[in-house]
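Margin note: ligand = iron/sulfur cluster.
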Amino acid sequence: MTVQTDIDEKINLKALTRQELREFTEELGLQSFRSDQLFQWLYQKGVHSFDEMTNLSKDLRSRLKEIATVPTIEHVRRQESKDGTIKFLFKLQGEGEEEHKVESVLIPDFYPDGAANRLTVCVSSQVGCVYGCSFCATGKMGFFRNLTHGEIVDQVQYINALCEEKFGKGITNVVYMGMGEPLHNYQAVVSSASIITDQLSIGLSPRRITVSTVGLTRRIRQLADERQPFNLAISLHAANDEKRDEIMPINSSMDLGQLKEAVQYYYARLHRPLTYEYLLFDEFNDSPEDARQLAEIVRWVPSKVNIIMYNDVAGVALKGAREERLDRFMQELVARDITATVRRSRGDDIDAGCGQLAIKEGQPQGK
Ligand code: SF4
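Resulting structure:
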């Protein structure tokens, strides 16, 4: 069993997979249903301590307290945009230099009568990011550490509880598009997604979970080999190697040719369409020729593309495209029968839009 221990060498139960939790309870000589009970307390009821696990005997709770911990992320701040988007700041476990914070975003959609429709949570999977895309505020922070699957699920669980209280229903979708490159923290991301879909947790359908990547080809193949049931989105943002090299350093080691092979491998095994995310930058990747090249990529396998209007980020020279260039760009895609949707980035007044998440205070310098 691979476990993460805290400074007292106690076992962090929220770093264990469901199978590892079973092994843990077996090692303690407990009956198998105890592992399901623990799992439910951790991931359905979201308790912060063993004392709250009231269907466990007092003796068992004391024993667990001696050998294990159930660390929970701490909600620090909430900002609400005028468009209804809510950004959350969470503090992770750790002191001093090890104290880190991450952001998550709730993007609600409403019916005309004002009732909540889709409630999408955008979660962070890493503190900072190693990939340094030039347009991204997270990339400018440097990289600090991966989140555990427990820390990822905690974000979802906290926001799910808030939605139930505020909108009378739980979240409907989860996207791994917050801080960090999800497939660079592969195990925790896959494990958190399977916890979120577990009926003893939130029980979301896997089809309502989307994992994004800048194009880590080995991990895309791994998702396919493991037949992971979640949706995959590729953060493309440029449709030829020259431009992609310029804004996404990953492209120099994993170029579009390699990405094409990985995407075709994925589709051949799973037969599941992909989504490409394409931030539209003014006079950089928004010409009719860019649209034609993008159409070629979207045709590698059955896919669709989201064209995202970029929110300006302080210190980034690239700016969001203008409406007239967007219109021309879309005409080229439509003329080629490409399924393309324009996404207006949400929450830009609170820096919660695509590419804008970054911790600006109380964060040590990145590596
Ligand atoms: Fe990292 Fe994604 Fe930002 Fe690139 S866009 S720096 S991969 S978080």
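Residues 129, 131-133, 136, 138-139, 180-181, 214, 235 surround iron/sulfur cluster (CB under 6 Å).
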